[in-house]
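Q: I'm building a small set of examples for a reading group on sequence design. Run inverse folding on the following structure and report the sequence directly after it, with nothing in between.
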């Protein structure tokens, strides 16, 4: 198992926690110098907060842990392709890279609908790579939505 897979498995654990709490199962971890410094999962429903996405919460925790808003030595692992809000947050946090599991054909904004983190209009670009443990990420989402129908 590669380090990338190990970190994504931790993000999947977070996504499972979200599902158990009735939240859309998206989980994220942020890694700095080989260590997970932040982890989070969606809590939008619980907090009645449209910004409580796993990525945003993990970025907040990582910034607090490091005492800086600049996360240029950090990598985000998230189970679902980031939405427009989260893709913008990757840039604002100056993340080094992002790896995600499942693509989001409807709202994904790092490769599917648009590529915000690689748009040359922005002063900082974040390389994003999708498909890491994609089938596991998709299965978790599909099971969650199938149970609610």
């Amino acid at each position: 198992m590669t380090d990338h897979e190990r970190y994504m498995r931790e993000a999947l654990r977070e996504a499972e926690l979200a599902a158990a709490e009735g939240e859309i199962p998206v989980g994220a971890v942020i890694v700095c110098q080989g260590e997970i410094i932040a982890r989070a999962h969606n809590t939008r429903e619980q907090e009645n907060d449209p910004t409580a996405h796993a990525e945003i919460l993990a970025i907040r925790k990582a910034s607090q842990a490091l005492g800086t808003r600049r996360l240029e030595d950090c990598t985000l692992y998230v189970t679902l392709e980031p939405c427009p809000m989260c893709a913008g947050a990757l840039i604002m946090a100056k993340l080094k890279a992002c790896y995600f599991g499942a693509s989001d054909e409807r709202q994904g904004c790092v490769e599917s609908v648009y590529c915000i983190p690689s748009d040359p209009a922005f002063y900082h670009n974040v390389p994003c790579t999708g498909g890491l443990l994609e089938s596991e990420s998709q299965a978790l989402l599909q099971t969650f939505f199938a149970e609610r129908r």
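The radius of gyration is 14 Å.
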